[in-house]
Design goal:
heterodimer; A: 383 residues; alpha/beta; Transcription Regulator spoIIAA; 2 domains; B: 249 residues; 4-stranded antiparallel β-sheet
């Protein structure tokens, strides 16, 4: 039978390996393993345990292939593995032609030993490696901040180099398109805060102070913080993915070779957009949150005029401005982390995903750290 | 002998735009069949029709005696297990090592134990000269190595027919010649059928038994036959220009 005809019968049948058979015959002190039929992937899988068990004990081993009608790489691998296990094997009855060619080709392909996997580091080494990597990451982040600063100063000297159209595009994507989500989240947060605080405060007859609590919490902390989380999730990851893809496609290398600073060209418009858009998002978050709080107050019997009067008596302009200033700094941090993650992306298909993850995680961690620093700073300054 | 691929009166249209039409040809068992043509002539589109990724606008395609477009479910899966495809970029799974990439079809379609799968993967990598790169990730290898690893993965199940999309594109002449030799060796020794999409002239002449040529302006086939004879005897100006590297008037 021609090899082609055998092959065309196809692995549909060979996968099952129903027509291959192994016969073991003692021969002197050794063993003769006789193979019959089509020794292809399915049959090799089925015969593997029995054949390897017998071959491991046989001295000498005779591999008799006279009954073979077909052989594929998996079958050849089984035969060569048996030869290796036995240490010493004799071959008998190999039909010449394609079957011999498959065996020879597989033997030749397996001749080069497989590469040794690298030795795993001891736990102390792992800790050291992780520490070095974290330290290098932080240094790179600081260096990137410096690069952005230099690029920003350069743009002040030559403002026509700033890509205004690109910045407007990012303002639209990071700002306008995030308005709906920001309003929804803000309204829900205000509503939940007011509702949850109304339960204990009602016990002391202090519901009237709910606007004070929610107002100050939102304006000073939650508004900027939640707006920053929205920006990190939507825009920080988008910056990283976009720039990461450009790195993978060698577009960033092309910019460098053209003598164009990628930080000034790609990063500055994004940084400025993130920094400018954040106070607007925080303000929207604040207003929507106050609206949500007002809705809960209305159900408790407090009219909107009373809520506004209460807010005016307690909440000061510095609370709002402090929150908006923090928001702008958060925007800058998220933009920096996102752009750095994108430009620092490796090569290959996982690089973009890794960069986006690093941008979101790094962005959220950095805004929480900055918020802590602001809390101490504002307290010291009496703000 | 029954052809392993039969294409009858095939047409490809996207959004009302005709890529090609009236394409008919047969691929015989054990031959290296080349689909050639200039950029944008629809070579890769034709390949994607033949392997069942695109549905024909008109016509019929048979692969290994089965109508690939009407097959569904397990019957389609069984047919797909009997063909191997090497993609232009290699299309290796980025999170897996080269050896693991080759083990994917073995793991999914056979009951081979892990030890056997690893050995088969090593054998396939050895066959394409990548034995020492088994533990590397696709991101850590060159484009040429990715192509060779793509061929190794396509051969994992020893399919009777292999489809290769631009196997030599972007490779250096030595690697390209090595790949051509491998294709010829597999076709000769195992009777594996190859359908190769390429416009690399040297490869076409080195490996091709027969070919068809597609043309963007004609929106279909303009030549069929032995590429060496086409080079010498074709009267078609596009075919002549292609084989002689001439500028079309």
């Amino acid at each position: 039978m021609r090899w082609e005809a055998l092959r065309e019968a196809g692995p549909g049948m060979s996968m099952a390996g129903q027509d291959a058979r192994l016969e073991a015959r003692p021969e002197g002190e050794g063993l003769r393993l006789v193979f019959h039929g089509r020794l292809e992937a399915g049959a090799a899988a089925r015969l593997w345990p029995e054949a390897t068990r017998r071959a491991a004990r046989a001295r000498p081993l005779i591999l008799d292939l006279a009954g073979l009608t077909a052989l594929d790489t998996a079958g050849a691998v089984l035969l060569l593995h048996l030869e290796h296990l036995a240490g010493e094997a004799r071959w008998a009855g190999m039909p010449p032609g394609p079957l011999q060619a498959v065996l020879d080709r597989t033997r030749q392909a397996l001749a080069a030993p497989p590469p040794e996997p690298p030795l795993p580091l001891p736990w102390l080494g792992l800790i050291g490696q992780a520490t070095i990597e974290r330290g290098q990451g932080m240094l790179a982040q600081v260096a990137f901040l410096g690069e952005a600063l230099v690029a920003g100063l350069g743009t002040i000297r030559r403002p026509w180099r700033l890509r205004l159209s690109e910045m407007l595009r990012h303002l639209d994507e990071a700002g306008l398109r995030a308005f709906g989500l920001t309003l929804l989240l803000g309204f829900l947060i205000g509503l939940i805060l007011a509702f949850q605080s109304s339960i204990p405060m009602r016990q002391f007859g202090a519901e009237v102070y709910i606007p004070n609590l929610v107002g100050i919490s939102l304006l000073r902390e939650l508004g900027p913080l939640m707006a920053a989380v929205v920006l990190a999730g939507r825009t920080g990851s988008a910056y990283a993915a976009e720039l990461g893809t450009m790195v993978v496609n060698e577009e960033v290398d092309a910019l460098r070779i053209m003598g164009i600073d990628p930080v000034a060209w790609l990063v500055l418009p994004r940084l400025l957009a993130a920094m400018l858009v954040m106070p607007v998002l925080a303000l929207l978050m604040d207003l929507a949150g106050l609206l949500g709080m007002a809705a809960v107050m209305a159900t408790l019997g407090f009219p909107p005029a009373g809520v506004i009067a209460q807010l005016q008596s307690w909440v000061q302009l510095k609370d709002l401005l402090g929150g908006l200033f923090k928001a702008a700094v958060f925007g800058l941090a998220i933009g920096l982390v996102g752009c750095r993650a994108g430009l620092g992306a490796g090569r290959g298909p996982r690089a973009v995903g890794d960069a986006a993850t690093a941008a979101v995680v790094g962005g959220i961690v950095s805004i929480v750290l900055l918020d802590g620093i602001f809390a101490v700073l504002f307290f010291r300054l009496g703000l | 002998m029954e052809p392993v691929v039969r294409v009858e009166n095939l047409a490809a249209r996207f959004g009302g735009r005709t890529i090609f039409e009236h394409v008919s040809f047969e691929v015989r068992p054990g031959e290296v069949f080349i689909i050639l043509g200039g950029s944008g002539s629809g070579k890769s589109t034709l390949l994607k029709h033949v392997i069942g990724l695109y549905e024909p606008a008109e016509g019929r395609i048979e692969v290994l005696g089965e109508d690939i477009d009407t097959l569904r479910g397990e019957a389609r899966q069984a047919l797909l297990r009997r063909i191997g495809v090497m993609w232009q970029s290699g299309a290796l799974f980025g999170s897996l090592t080269l050896a693991e990439n080759i083990e994917v079809p073995l793991e999914q379609h056979t009951a081979l134990p892990a030890e056997a799968r690893a050995l088969v993967a090593q054998a396939k990598l050895g066959l394409v000269g990548l034995a020492d790169a088994a533990l590397r990730l696709p991101a850590e290898i060159s484009g040429g190595m990715a192509k060779r690893a793509g061929i190794a993965r396509a051969m994992a199940l020893d399919p009777p027919i292999l489809f290769l999309d631009e196997p030599s594109a972007g490779l250096d002449p030595i690697t390209s010649a090595g790949l051509d030799a491998l294709i010829r060796q597999l076709a000769r020794e195992l009777g594996t059928t190859f359908v190769v999409v390429t416009h690399e002239l040297q490869s076409i002449l080195a490996i091709g038994d027969r070919c068809i040529m597609l043309d963007k302006d004609a929106k279909g086939m303009i030549a069929e036959g032995d590429p060496r004879r086409l080079r010498e005897e074709s009267e078609n100006p596009v075919v002549r220009a292609f084989f002689r590297r001439e500028v079309l008037a």
